[in-house]
Specification:
The structure holds 2 protein chains of 2 kinds.
Chain A lengths: L1 H9 L6 E17 L2 E23 L2 E11 L5 H16 L17 E4 L7 H9 L7 E19 L4 E19 L2 E11 L4 H19 L2 E2 L8 E4 L1 H13 L2 H5 L22 E4 L21 E5 L2 E2 L6 H6 L10 E4 L14 E7 L3 E2 L5 E12 L4 E5 L2 E5 H4 L4 E2 L3 E4 L2 E4 L1 E4 L7
Parallel strand pairs in A: 4-6, 8-17, 9-14, 13-21
Antiparallel strand pairs in A: 1-2, 1-5, 2-3, 5-6, 6-7, 9-22, 10-11, 10-13, 11-12, 14-16, 15-16, 16-17, 16-18, 19-22, 20-21
Helix pairs in contact in A: 3-4
Chain B lengths: L6 H17 L6 E16 L2 E6 L4 E9 L4 E6 L7 H21 L15 E6 L11 H16 L5 E19 L2 E20 L2 E4 L2 E5 L13 H12 L7 E7 L1 H13 L5 H4 L20 E3 L22 E5 L2 E2 L6 H7 L7 E2 L8 E2 L3 E4 L6 H6 L3 E12 L6 E13 L2 E7 L2 E6 H6 L3 E2 L4 E3 L3 E4 L2 E5 L1 E4 L2 E7 L1
Parallel strand pairs in B: 5-7, 10-17, 16-25
Antiparallel strand pairs in B: 1-2, 1-3, 1-6, 3-4, 6-7, 7-8, 7-9, 10-26, 11-12, 11-16, 12-13, 14-15, 17-18, 18-19, 18-20, 20-26, 21-26, 22-25, 23-24
Chain lengths: 427, 476
């Protein structure tokens, strides 16, 4: 199929350029209820993502039409030709600003192979239940997804790259019973190559937090004390700035960022430092190339609270006449100045788990319903549940402080916590 | 016009039958779901046009076998006569490998009985007014551009107007020892998303329409674009709400969100099997005001989640979940039903053939009442009409609610003021909210513009709705 597609598209005179991404995915999936296996599944699939580029003219102007489609390995040649011609027809009516398709920059075909190792399934299972030992609580349900993937990107302009990778996703649901009252917490975790120790540690922390939640009192109103955001919520919050410095959001007028734009003005808190990275050990999305075959490099985007580079898909950086960065999947945020231990001299609240903490990448609105928080009353931590926070990034950007303690989770590395001094927690 | 089963599935059906029959020589239960569901997603915006395959286009198969203890599945997308021995060998190999790994980890597989199915051979085909292939790309895009331009003409504050149209042609077969089923239908969606900036703040709203419809749905955008600007203006001038508990009227979209997130997820019966659902303790008990009736089912309404059979070959159901405030039953997939000793309600849905089937909602809604919207507004001294939503999140064990609502229109002394508050997060405890329902309007409206996840994954098409509902809500 792959060689048929290349031959057909090479001789397809009506199109200017083309791109094929061959995607192969194998997965092992385990579904547990408590410590028993409910079901196991395997997936083995192969796809060809085809993008066609067509030069269109209208009223004396030239445009570049683009459309993509997925070719299935079960398609007969006649069906493939029909699908590709349909894709071409779609591209003929797309009048987008033209850009130069990336050319081959490397002298020969490149193969980047992450070392592929068989998953030690039995060890992972043992690791998952290693700390699940008490009768009052444990893992109620969990799902493990282990992926091995292979990509081959080839274009009409000579890009021809192959890479392989492994990643994992684990969904953990924990429960704890205290005085006949049962509570649960939920974690959706993404990993690079999943190791037993890493999984075991995540389960341990989740079970400790669930036990604490089982003793939690209902939330009270808090105002005027430091509010500390922790865990994956921190990554979700900082991702707003990554999105705002993306070329597509700028080109489409959604973001007002530009190079040398000052995100923070006379901040009382810490200055933002964000660097994009193609590879993070913890990340499920680490990749040497993006979907256009761009070889990705570590790229600082925000320094001292000022935008230094605009990043994103080649098409959109081209529109802005900026260097190609490609779509870099991971980001690293500079650590702050606050030692979380020093906060223990005064009352504060640490927000650890939400139903679904969200930061709207367009409006900057952020918030959610709190499932588990710890209130420090000056002497000790007291678990609380329920309540909400709701605010906007623009209201906190000049006063937020970051912890000097590091945290790494999936696509994010950076401060473990963000400290807000002007955020209200409502019961 | 009749929607036909895909040619690929018609041609592959005998091979699929042969594969199932071969596997039945080894395994006591075997089923195969084949999908060839194709669609396109169109977006017209100020800076250009996108036309790509729809998000959940799929072509592939999933086999389920009973391995003498429980069930395993194998999903793949290459099938031919020549491939049959290789597929059988892979299933045997994977089944043995897992047994060995579980033994090494000192764990066991849950025992399931073999699924018992009624014999059924049937082909289902839906009709739409205009098939997607009968209208050219040019004509579809021309209509979308026209809507975009008309919307731009209505406001100087717009950064962009995005007009989205998605069409999905669903084709599926289900084959087991007892069943040979096929279904073909089309659902479609449109959205209009005006985006504006005021005082350096970007704001947007989205309005949409949906249904078991073809290209004719594009005309419905002409009824929406003026309202989209009116609603955007509300949001642009919105204030921040003072957190507290208020009298609220939920519009049909928001009441549908409450039905779906607050109670619906908690009655998906795979949650009962996992011990995750608080609802299991409330069977035949009051969970809501006597004014509340709640339904779910692919056969309960005609919307985007209406199908003839689910992804486990079970014929679509119509389930009354809450009857006059009393929780009567949940909704189930086939394996959860087997564990609970009940009959599946036909709610076994997969994101695509690559994914596991779970108990999932279909068309979920509250039933109508007897009040008029006018009398409901007039009954409020101080409160809000809550309109449209951005997202919601379930909490089936602890019955917490998180609904991110687009806006709330202030009501004072039984009348709207000109104040709007946005965004609003509605939280609280499910029974508190449902028991506080004091008025329910006549008529039910459903919409299927969004997707529903199970936790943070497994996205499927669902529709939600209801009447206008008056309740007490915790807003922030």
């Amino acid at each position: 199929m792959f060689s048929f597609l290349i031959n057909y598209l090479t001789n397809f005179e009506k199109i200017q350029d083309w791109k094929i991404i061959e995607r192969k995915k194998d997965s092992i999936e385990l579904y547990f209820i408590k410590k028993e296996l409910d079901m196991h599944r395997s997936v083995e699939v192969l796809y060809y993502d085809v993008t066609l580029y067509v030069e269109n003219k209208k009223e004396g102007k030239t445009y570049l039409g683009e459309s993509n489609t997925v070719v299935s390995p079960t398609m007969k040649e006649s069906e493939v030709i029909k699908v590709l011609n349909d894709c071409y027809q779609a591209a003929c009516y797309v009048y987008n600003k033209p850009f130069t398709i990336l050319k081959k920059k490397i002298s020969k075909d490149t193969e980047v192979n992450q070392e592929i190792s068989p998953f030690a399934l039995d060890e992972l299972i043992k690791g998952m239940f290693e700390h699940d030992l008490k009768t009052e609580g444990g893992l109620g349900a969990c799902e493990i997804f282990l992926y091995t993937r292979k990509f081959h990107i080839i274009t009409s302009k000579g890009i021809d790259v192959i890479y392989k990778k492994q990643d994992a996703m684990v969904e953990l649901v924990s429960y704890w019973i205290n005085n006949k009252k049962e509570v649960e917490l939920f974690d959706n975790l993404y990993f690079g190559y999943l190791k037993k120790e890493e999984l075991s540690q995540k389960v341990k922390v989740l079970l400790e937090e669930t036990e604490k939640r089982s003793k939690a009192e209902p939330m009270k109103d808090f105002e005027g004390i430091p509010v500390i955001l922790e865990g994956d919520n921190v990554s979700e919050f900082f991702n707003y700035f990554v999105m705002k410095s993306n070329a597509q959001t700028i080109y489409e007028g959604i973001s007002n960022y530009y190079i040398d734009f000052k995100i923070q003005n006379n901040p009382k808190g810490d200055l933002l430092e964000i660097t994009l990275k193609p590879y993070l050990e913890s990340s499920s999305r680490s990749t040497p190339y993006d979907n256009d075959g761009v070889l990705l490099k570590t790229t600082p985007i925000i320094e001292d609270g000022v935008v230094k580079n605009i990043h994103g898909e080649h098409r959109f950086t081209s529109y802005l006449d900026l260097p190609t960065t490609g779509m870099i999947p991971n980001f690293s945020v500079g650590l702050g100045t606050t030692d979380l231990n020093e906060l223990k001299t005064k009352p504060h609240i640490v927000l650890k788990k939400f139903s679904d903490f969200q930061t709207n990448s367009m409006t900057g609105d952020f918030g959610g319903e709190i499932r588990f928080a710890q209130y420090f009353d000056g002497k000790s931590y007291n678990p609380l549940t329920c309540g909400t926070i709701s605010s906007n990034v623009n209201k906190v950007v000049n006063s937020m402080k970051f912890s000097n303690e590091k945290f790494q989770s999936d696509i994010y590395e950076g401060p473990k916590a963000i400290i807000f001094d002007n955020l209200k927690v409502s019961k | 016009m009749k929607v036909n089963l895909s040619v690929f599935l018609e041609e592959t059906r005998p091979i699929a039958r042969q594969l199932v029959d071969e596997l039945l020589k080894t395994y006591t239960y075997v089923s195969l779901l084949g999908a060839d569901s194709m669609g396109k997603r169109y977006m017209v915006k100020k800076t250009g046009v996108d036309i790509n395959d729809a998000r959940f286009s799929e072509r592939g198969f999933v086999l389920r076998v009973h391995n003498s203890v429980g069930y395993m599945e194998y999903a793949f997308n290459e099938l031919s006569i020549d491939k049959i021995p290789e597929i059988i060998s892979k299933i045997n190999e994977k089944s043995n490998y897992l047994k060995e790994q579980l033994k090494n980890a000192n764990l066991v597989q849950i025992k399931y009985e073999k699924l018992i199915e009624d014999s059924m051979k049937k082909d289902f085909n839906e009709d739409v007014a205009i098939l997607p292939e009968n209208i050219s790309y040019k004509d579809k895009l021309a209509k979308m551009r026209d809507i975009m331009e008309k919307t731009f003409d209505l406001s100087d504050e717009l950064i962009d107007v995005r007009v989205i149209y998605e069409e999905m042609n669903i084709s599926k077969i289900f084959i087991s020892k007892e069943k040979d089923l096929s279904q073909a239908y089309i659902w479609s969606n449109t959205y209009i998303i005006p985006i504006a900036s005021k005082n350096s703040q970007v704001k947007y709203i989205h309005l949409g329409s949906s249904g078991l419809k073809g290209v004719e749905i594009l005309d419905e955008l002409y009824d929406l674009y003026e309202d989209s600007i009116k609603q955007l203006n509300y949001v642009l001038n919105a204030k921040t709400i003072e957190p507290g508990e208020y009298d609220v009227i939920l519009n049909p979209e928001v009441s549908g969100l409450v039905a779906h997130e607050a109670f619906g997820h908690g009655v998906e019966m795979d949650m009962f099997v996992k011990g995750r659902a608080n609802a299991v303790h409330y069977l035949n008990k009051a969970v809501a005001s006597k004014l509340v009736n709640m339904y779910d089912g692919a056969a309960s309404a005609r919307e985007v989640s209406s199908y003839f059979f689910d992804d486990e070959g079970v014929i679509a159901g119509d389930t009354k979940i809450i009857d006059k405030g009393i929780f009567k039953t949940g909704i189930s997939d086939n394996l959860s039903a087997e564990r609970l000793g009940i009959k599946s309600t036909g709610n076994g849905k997969r994101q695509t053939f690559e994914h596991k089937a779970y108990s999932r909602m279909t068309n979920t809604f509250f039933g109508e009442g007897n009040n008029s919207l006018e009398s409901m507004i007039a009954s409020i001294d101080y409160g809000f009409l809550l309109e449209s939503f951005n997202s919601g999140m379930e909490d089936p064990k602890n019955w917490g609610i998180q609904c991110v609502i687009s806006r709330g229109r202030e009501i004072k002394n039984g009348k709207f003021t000109d104040k709007v508050f946005a965004p609003i997060i509605m939280t609280g405890y499910v029974p508190d909210l449902l028991k506080s329902i004091s008025m329910v309007s006549k008529g039910v409206e459903l919409s299927g513009s969004g997707y529903c996840g199970k936790g943070y994954k497994e996205f499927v098409k669902t529709s939600i709705g209801g009447p206008y509902i008056k309740a007490r809500g915790k807003l922030s």
